[in-house]
């Protein structure tokens, strides 16, 4: 263990060395999905090379970058509020501060942002971060700057992210960008462009580097990870045009998972997100084959009604989803499964909603994220369907499934009582400074007394109690056995 700590310190020293001569201060914050948080680490790396160190203090920032989310209207409102806050800080404390908007709102609103929000100097879409140095030069000369060009190639595979707010144990590794699925409610294909995959060699290199630096749990990230396909670069949709050689040497998601699992056999490997229509059984079989691939699949279904699934352009039926769930549970009996669900999609009737409820009853997810439908301008549903489910009904349906999920989480969490699980220590428990908090491979949070353990340790914990979402236990000390 000592060796691991040393390696980690070395990693930190390298990072500090890289930025020790920097003079300008960057305040960067992220909203929305894990991909945004991961992208901000790429941006921080690009900006470090431009002489910027990150700061947590808005009042001393030379540059503020906010990585934004467009997935629901509420997410955009949150960002608008942050812009008001930057405005106040600039006015009262920090007149030299410049403000840039990154991510999905930048891509969706483009120049409108510069018109609508006077505070904004810089607008940069998700594929244009390498242009930040040029754009910043424009801003430094007093001009607004914008680049929202989407790319067929960009994966940022050549950039080593600067890990922000890191616990030193868990990290995201981005493997694909964009999404081709065109779910009718979803703005992502418009803001993040077409699907393309990152060179597996650069992924493995990043995984190896993370291990060397003390990281023990990584999540391979993509909007639709199971559709990962490397054939030498280029868009997923152009794979058919690739040469026979390219096709023969291509790497799909299950192969990539295997490469990662073998490259670092003790590193915990997770992935997110899976669309049921793209999750193939060879992925599940690869998970079963390697102990270090964590037994958890985030498998959003959005609705339990075949009619609504079709209107959402989700390319599977409820019955096919059940078959997939049954197969996962047959191949990996202790696999945790989680969901995303939308209630109140246009035309959703009470009967459709009851299909969602009965689907949840069948699967009994470990946990989930549930939303009311939010119409997004430009999407197929936004253009062609009236947002006709009244807000009060949406809210009631949401509450119903939130309650149901809580009950299911409790049942699923209780299944671990009296068992011994492997927990990777990530941080101090929020509730007690004498307890560690970590996660099991199934992604369930577990707290236990600190004892002699430290952050980054894998600990066998006997579960003695639980709440609906958290396991409570005690470390099993085999040395006393
Ligand atoms: N594949 C993505 C999913 C993107 S959005 C990923 O990697 O996470 C995350 C979730 O937000 C979706 O699964 C869906 O449940 C929800 N969502 C997306 N668009 C929405 C909308 N217009 N209204 C409400 N919820 C939405
Ligand atoms: Fe959105 Fe569907 Fe892709 S939810 S990110 S279009 S898989």
TrEMBL record:
A molecular function GO annotation: metal ion binding
Compartment(s) where it occurs, according to its Swiss-Prot or TrEMBL record: Cytoplasm
Catalysed conversion reaction: N(6)-dimethylallyladenosine(37) in tRNA + (sulfur carrier)-SH + AH2 + 2 S-adenosyl-L-methionine = 2-methylsulfanyl-N(6)-dimethylallyladenosine(37) in tRNA + (sulfur carrier)-H + 5'-deoxyadenosine + L-methionine + A + S-adenosyl-L-homocysteine + 2 H(+)
GO cellular component: cytosol
UniProt domain Radical SAM core: residue ranges: 165-412
Keyword annotations: 4Fe-4S, Cytoplasm, Iron, Iron-sulfur, Metal-binding, S-adenosyl-L-methionine, Transferase, tRNA processing
CDD domains in alphabetical order: Radical_SAM
Family matches, as InterPro entries: Elp3/MiaA/NifB-like_rSAM, Methylthiotransferase, Methylthiotransferase_CS, Methylthiotransferase_N, Methylthiotransferase_N_sf, MiaB_methiolase, rSAM, rSAM_horseshoe
Enzyme Commission code: 2.8.4.3
Function: Catalyzes the methylthiolation of N6-(dimethylallyl)adenosine (i(6)A), leading to the formation of 2-methylthio-N6-(dimethylallyl)adenosine (ms(2)i(6)A) at position 37 in tRNAs that read codons beginning with uridine.
Name of this chain's protein: tRNA-2-methylthio-N(6)-dimethylallyladenosine synthase
Gene transcribed to yield this protein: miaB
